[in-house]
Structure formats: structure tokens, C-alpha cells
Amino acid sequence: MEYLMILLLIFIAVLFLMQVVFFEITKSKMEKMNNINWFLSLDKPFNYNRVGYMVFLCFICYLVSSPAPLFSLEWFIYFVLFLAMGIVADAVVQYAILIYSKKRCRRQIEDAHLLQNELQHFTPNADFEKDYTLTPQNYDETSILRQYMTPEDHLAVMSVDSGKFASQFKDDTEAMFVVEPYTDTQRVQSQFEDDSSVKVTTLTPTGKMPFKDEKIDIIMCQECNYDKNEIQRVLKKGGYFIVNQHGTENLKEFVRLYMPFQMKGKWDAESCAQTLESIGMRIVDKFEDYGTIRFHSIQSLYQYFTKVSPDFANVNRYQVFYLQALKEMKDHSYFEMTTHQFLVVAQKTF
């Protein structure tokens, strides 16, 4: 029995040292990432819930190493003893690591609770003035579109901004169609009631564009998705397709935190141009813009997401991100995110 106790203590010591090394590596990584939620998770009561895992692990280890005849009475007796030692050792180590982590990260845990409390008492203010700065964009999609427009054109603007972008081009063409896939078309149409040349429409139930073949002179895709085959179908020969979209690097600090498996591949001006060339379109011009946006308060970050992506403005749902942003604002007086936008002009040649 004394031998078993010594063996158990040695096993606990080795397991604890391994867990400490793993903990320190993880702690260093979490500090670099400003993952406040991880430090909050350390401040919890002890709850051992690894019995099933240890039963499986001990069974596999004992099955491989036991000298006793398989499934004999001796085998079962020693297995139960081995399993009990394994569970006791693991429980002791898990409790010891929890105590160690709380003492080792006491300051970070206290700071995390202060940040969490501040975030929980955050109250959105619709009248809050813009408190963020954007680097200047190196192209202007409005000016580029006007370069290709003529008064006789039939223009189609695809967007998800309730007609805001399209409203800049009222009376500029013979006819303009505003294609809004997610917004109440009647509400958007009311913005153009003084202009009979503008018609607000949406995609068909099958996701097709609501136009006959070769109906449109210019299609402007403003920060929304498109079907390249539908673009080819409805565009007149010699007509232009202008696509202005966000690239894969846009707001990567948020996207990669919550959707890491959707970041494979790259979507930029070159990738977009290649997809349009694959259907026989000629690339006329392309622009790429990488920049940054700096926020100086959680209020400004919330207001920005409310405008550009309302789903991301859910502070409770995305607490990990907002806590990280708040921490960086405290440390550096601002939180910075990457912006990435590109524009491609293509022409239908046949």
C-alpha cells in the first residue's frame, strides 16, 4: 500500500507539472490576444467533470500495459484500483491547477471583472457623436460609376443599404432599377416617389435578377453578393459591371475570432477579376484599398457596427470581442481594426 501511495504522489506531481507548463503557454497566448473571457473563466468554483474521460483513458492504458490475463478476476481488481488512482490523481491535479491559476492570474482576473462590469453597464446612445477615425480611401466608387454612365443608360444598382447609394444617381439615367434583396421594396420606393424613372425591385423567388436577357447597360454591385452568370445574362453586349465589395481582410479582428473556418482562401480585386474573366468578361480597371479604423470608445464601436453590420452590434452575444476591444482602449486609448475594400470594372464583350 505504501508503494501505491508513493506511486500515486509521483503521478500527481508529474501530471501537475505538465498541467502547469500547458497553463503557462496558454496564459501567454491569451495575454497576447487580450482574451478577457479566458481570465474570467478562471474565477469559477471547482467542478470535476472528467470521470468519463478518465475511465476511457485508464481503460486504454491498462488494456495495453496490464500483465494479468485479459478480463480475468485479477485483471478487473487491478483495473478498478488503477482507475480509482487515475481519477483521484486527475481530480487533485485539476483542483491544484485551479488554485494555482487563480493565484497566478489574480491581477488579470480582477481587471477582467472590472472590464466586464463596465461593459454590462454600457448603454447605447443613439445621439452619440462619431468617435472613430478612418484612413482615407484611395478610390471613390461614386465617381468611378459616373465615368461609365450616360443619360440614355438603364442602370441597375444592387445593394443592401435601403437605396442609400442609389439615391445619388436619381435623374442621371433614362431608367434606374434598385435591387434590394433583403429590404421592404415599398419602403425603399417611397424614397424615389418624386422620380418615375426609378423602380425598386428584388430578386425572384429562385434568386435570379428580375430582368430580361440583355436588358441593362450598367450593373453596380455595391457591397453585396452577386451571381456572375446572372450578371452575364442581363447585361447588354458592351455593358459594364462594376463591383465594389469588402475583401477577406476587412474587420478581420472580429471575423477571425468568431468564424475562423470561413477564412480559407482570399477574396480581393484579383480574385474577383479572375471569376469575371472566367465567364468571358474583359477587365477594364480594378482598385484595392487596405486601411484601418480606430475606435476610441465602446459606444463608437457599437454605433459603427449598428450601421455597417447590425448583427455584430450585439454586445452580449459577442462579449469576448467587446471585452478585448475595451481592454485595448484602456491600454492604448484606441482599438484598431483592419479595413479592406476593392472595386472591379468589367465589360461584357459578346
TrEMBL record:
Q: Highest taxon of the source?
A: Bacteria
Q: Which UniProt keywords apply?
A: Membrane, Transmembrane, Transmembrane helix
Q: List all membrane-crossing ranges.
A: 6-26, 47-65, 77-100
Q: Does the keyword Oxidoreductase apply?
A: no
UniProt name for this protein: SAM-dependent methyltransferase
Q: Which organism is it from?
A: Massilimicrobiota timonensis
